[in-house]
Amino acid sequence: MSLHCGIACRRKSFWCSRLLSTYVTKARYMFELKEDDDACKKAQRTGAFYLFHSLAPLVQKSEHQYVVPRYSLVELERLLETFGQDTQKIEDSVLIGCSGQQEAWFALDLGLKSSSSTSASLQKPEMETELKGSFTELRKALFHLSMKDATLLSTAQALLHWHDAHQFCSRSGQPTKKNMAGSKRVCPSNKIIYYPQMAPVVITLVSDGPRCLLVRQSSFPKGMYSALAGFCDIGESLEEAVRREVAEEVGLEMDRLQYSASQHWPFPNSSLMIACHATVKPGQTEIQMNLRELEAAAWFSHDEVATALRRKGPYTQQQDGTFPFWLPPKLAIAHLLIKEWLEKQSCSSLPASPRSSHLHLS
Q1: For 37-80, how does the pLDDT look when each residue is reduced to its tens digit (9 = 90+)?
Q2: DSSP character for 74?
Q3: Residue closest to 355 by CA, chosen among 279, 256, 272, 259
Q4: Count of CB atoms within 10 A of residue 14's CB?
Q5: Cβ neighbours of residue 246 under 8 Å, at least 6 residues apart?
Q6: How do residues 85-136 score in pLDDT, each as one tens digit?
Q7: Residue whose C-alpha is closest to residue 111's, from 34, 57, 46
Q8: How many helices (H) and strands (E) does the chain have?
Q9: Could you give the 3-state DSSP secondary structure of residue 25?
Q10: H or E segment to which residue 131 belongs
Q11: What's the distance, CA 299 to chain centroid?
């Protein structure tokens, strides 16, 4: 018995080691490409490119899902030459990932003009005809993509947008220069280095036990409700940001906070969504909505939320002029928060997730 267990443990350790080694190899390869321009340029020769136009990714429709085409360096050079463009434009691409076999993945925007490029932007209609696809706004395309493609395109759009908005040094006013991977920009005149950044955002599902609180902003699609969300202020901890946002937006004071997960979100300008569950103090559930922030806020029961989660789109106007109550799609971290709360209500006897941490607020 002990011999069998010993063999099993060694096998488990071996496979864990292999998985770890694959991840470490990828991480270090990505680090090398970000730090070494020559290595990155070499990786482009065997890499794959995702194409954008004015921050909209190129997609091709396949039944109910979008497929994201990829192009080799040779195909991309041929495409640029077809439209009379200098292949130097490829240097505007950014590194967004790599495969386990060290195939590097890049993104290139054909509609944005960099400060270092003399090439004019390529025209969108002609490009779409040539590429047999359409450049679709990422907000619209995101929920029709596979998880892998959605993650890659979100990273790509965020990086491309950051570079487009940071082409000049804030100190000298001179043009900055992107490194080959796009992991930083440098001002040649004073050597200041600029790195892409994300803004921390807390997104919180408030509950009082049997009900959860969901809200609407005027910018939301008709009928959609979601969890509370807001940017962290300078100097705030995560706990302070959540407590302030809940107080500001719905006039409630929290009693308990539980971290859930985090997610990069490319809108509006690349955010790190930090998702939490919060409960309010007993007997203090009266909503005092901030009309400058929200259009609606209400408590919803387990059954109401469960029905909304089962509801399938598209969400069209009903005969009485209203829209059905629905929730953010699966790819959004708000969906995860709502689903976690629902499952906890259904299986309250199950132990808490080991990743979660509980914080009591005084």
Answers
A1: 999 999 999 999 999 999 999 999 987 789 999 999 999 999 99
A2: H
A3: 259
A4: 10
A5: 204, 206, 228, 252, 253, 254, 278, 280
A6: 889 999 999 999 999 999 999 999 999 876 555 556 678 888 999 999 999 9
A7: 57
A8: 9, 16
A9: helix
A10: helix 124-131
A11: 28
